[in-house]
Amino acid sequence: MSALLRLRGITKVYPSVVASDRIDLDIQPGEIHAILGENGAGKSTLMKLIYGVSQPDEGEIQWQGQTVHIRSPAQARQLGIGMVFQHFSLFESLTVAQNISLAVKGSIRELSARVEETGARFGLPIKADTVVHSLSVGERQRVEIIRCILQNPKLLIMDEPTSVLPPQGVQQLFETLRRLRDEGCSILYISHKLEEIRQLCDKATVLRAGRVVASADPASHSNESLANLMIGRSIEPPPHAPANAGDAKRLLIQSLDHVPTDPFGTVLKGISLHVSPGEIVGIAGVSGNGQNELMRLVSGEELHSAHHAGELSIDGTCVDRLGPLQRRTKGLGFVPEERLGRGAVPELSLSLNGLLTAYRHGLTRLGMIRFGAARKFARQCISDHDVRCGGEQSLAGSLSGGNLQKFIVGREIALQPSLLVLSQPTWGLDVGAASNIRRALLQLRDSGAAVLVVSEELEELFEISDRLYVMFDGHLSPSLTTRDTSTTQIGRWMSGEFLQETITGASDH
Amino acid sequence: MAYRLVARTETSLRAQLLVPLAAITLTLLAGSVLFSLLGKSPLAAFHAFFVEPLSTRYGIGEVLLKTGPLLLIAQGLAIGFRARVWNIGAEGQLLAGAMAASALALHFDTTESVWLLPAMVCIGTLAGAAWAGIAAWLRTAYNANEILVTFMLSSIALQLLYYLVSGPLRDPMGLSFPQSALFSDAALFAPLLEHTRVNNSLYLSFGATILAWIFVQRSLSGYKLLIGGLAPQAARYAGFSEKKAVWLGLLIGGAAAGMAGVGEVAGPLGLLQRSISPGYGFAAIIVAFLGGLHPIGIVFAAFFMALIYVGGDMSLVSVGLPNSSATIFQGMLLVFYLACYLFANHRLQKVEIRH
Amino acid sequence: MLDSLVFLIAGTLAAATPLLFAALGETVVEKAGVLNLSIEGMMAVGAATAFTVATLTGSHVSGFAIAALASALLSTVFAILVLFFLANHVAAGLAVGILGLGLSALIGKNHEGQTISPLSDLDMGWLSELPLLGKILFSHDPMLYLGIVMIFLVWWLLSHSKLGLIIRAVGESPDAASAIGYPVILIRFLAILFGGAMAGIGGAYLVLSYTPLWAEGLVAGRGWIVVALVVFGMWRPLRIALGAYLFGAVSLLELFIQGMGFSIPSQLMSAMPYIVTIVILVIMSRNPRLIQLNHPASLGQSWHRNA
Predict the structure, then answer these.
(1) Which of the four CATH numbers 3.40.630.30, 3.40.50.300, 3.40.50.1110, 3.40.50.2000 does domain A251-505 have?
(2) What is the pTM of this model?
């Protein structure tokens, strides 16, 4: 049988890296084919080349035996290639049916019927007249998948689809994908999650640093051997001594309600949590369930609406009305999810980015900046955390995501916070950088600081945190001791089950 | 062989210097085309525009006279622009400063005190800042867009000026002209260069330049404003108040424009009349951009813009160019500057396609 | 009393029409995610061109048509700056606005201070003869009616047509629109051209009907009021039209109040439209949530396709 899609010697060069290096790939009709690789291995670049978002500098793409030049996503769709993006390409202010009508021919009324019918057939229930901004992340993914299915694709590209789903949702998605395969649609499944690939995929191509390093039948490999193929070296998880938490509550949030100023944001309902010195507390949950809103409230970037209930305190002092700066003087450090534009200013040098939160620590005199001291501070962060860059005068925007994150985390740790809050600290980082950051957090914890981590990666939270909360639809679960819980329980809670369960099921200390 | 546009990984001083020069060159080229279309010799026109003003003592004086207010206002505006606070109503703030200073000068028209002029400068500066402050207040308290409010305030200030010169501040002894009485000598800046109209107010502009340099390049407040402009989210994250940035950005711009207004009525005009500024407030926007929003760059840009003003007047006489040429030149300068600016933070990279 | 009512309503309609054309155009531009602040300059170029062409050819129709073309041409300068050179929208709008003011003076310099016979009113037979209503509703020039038609056309375009859906999608998230295959730059380019042509027609109406004369600076800040109108109207054509008529009424107030014999400084009356703009802007902007819900999410942000 001839391949549906065949890549030969595909190469794509970006200014600083070769993102795809002479890649060969064959995808057969009716197979689920995994592209496996850690963050930064070039998976997304490859997908963009196949979907026509960008064009290869070299090499050949054959579609059903014909050589093609895919110049745009529109052309890719015409050929029969569909793609579900990692960051969704839906329009918040439009309805489901309007969104779909932008990609599929037909009147709104006719499409509405087809959307709901297709949804039922593939286990993707959705109402066609809902406005997208009111949908959960999982529901949005359904809309994206339905939009692709309605275009009768021969090949469907899924980019890290499970990162937005709770574990049960993952099984549901796999069911949908298998049904699609059985109807003859090939699926290109991009992921770095080994277990999923072994469960779902018929074939796997492993990428490392832009190159194909192996082609494998995932079912006949163990997780370990796949991991070795993917990473090419073994990484020790950091030593993890049990927490030595005190009874003091460094951060305390009590039954807090909040309506965010962003009209599309999640409303927070009755949030209670605490973090003590000497422990790492994790918040698990699918993104978009109110984590961002909670983080903005804790950091002080958004103030708690005064006429709503609840209170937020640091070391026993109510900080409800204090801005980010005043909270920092109380010992708060914060690493936001967005590195460029929030945690750092891309157009400025690292030494000026150090100044962003560190200026109160002796980097100014009489309102004037001490540039020498600022450079020295940045150099210190760079050497302490192994930030790979051209020095403290490099622009923040020129660093890779992992190195910039190491710099930001390093900057916040250098300020010796008594409470450090981090949002998605290792998102998109390669294994080495991620493990560096986790090690630094454990060190900080052992020196007596309280650490709060919001993450989508359950594995990460289980690796470093002492206690866990789960967030769902603006609610926060009771806390669980990590050692006494399982991923299954957290998974169930991630789809909101804790709302029905009685508090007695949870240990709260 | 093909080219693609890539972001620069570090700031390039060379590119930043080349951008305004390229903009000026392109403007001159486009200007030649325009002049040829109008049936004028481009060479004669450029001679009138750029050489004539600098070939006589009087011409140089006139250029310096116009450099003063442009420099002063642009330094103030640039600080706001770096923070993405768009004050486009400097013209109105200039008028506010001129009106307040004139009211003071006319009220104390018999005094010979040396303190009158400094008092005028102070009150004019305050009035300009206050006029811009209205926009800052409406933006911070009611979220009203400062671009629109500063523009509207500028039109209102003009009507207020018309009202004052035809009513309360009109010269009671004058003919039917809508203008005030002449100021006393104590209310006027002393001449700086003989046989020209340049006066001591030019020192104010250079003083402001030094202060602006310290503020922008050295101070923490300047840094905070810059962050607010480049990355508002990062400013919020760091805890730099957006409201403070809006207030500071507008007040500084307004103060500078108000002071420039004093320089006009207490300088070349010597009285309050319907027309005080040939659009300095708007031209200064262009000066600020052309100078790369940098205090030193702005000095050169202000001088160049003043040259266009004076050249425009001279070419009107000597070559018979329409008096709108100067405005067209200003517009083209900014258009070309913005186009070239792409290359200040991007560069073209050669892409070789291997087969 | 009746006469002054007729005068007020008919005058309001006429005064509002230039604002209406330009504001409807700007609505489409902003819905596509582009903030074009050069309306003042584009209206001025439209006005100068229309006056010159109509004077030279004697044809008002050519005046309007060439004015639309000229302003659209000027708006391509803006479009190239923001779409291809990724210039800041505010700065590019100011630049092109100033350029437009300069060009308008150049175009109209031989006709400074001249007058022209205004566009003739449409004769609607017995309708125009109706008592009262005939004068108020059925005795205007065709462009005024076209303005009213445009309200509904733009409303239909934006909320009921596929093209409108695409424009809104591009204005909300150019990344997403591009990912599903829409040519973002082309759509924005066309929207900007449409906005330019509409501003040109607005400017032309000013000199060929409302005040049938040309003088430099005659647009007098209307271009900025138009930008404000789009905010007042929350990017909805029907509300924007309402706003335009309100401003039409305000600008007539001066004549009306003088007619009633009040002595108010004329400068205060001249400043009235600007004062009213600020007041309404403050009232409408007070609730940031309301603005956030309605304004196109990518408004004023530079965008380019990542290769």
Answers:
(1) 3.40.50.300
(2) 0.91
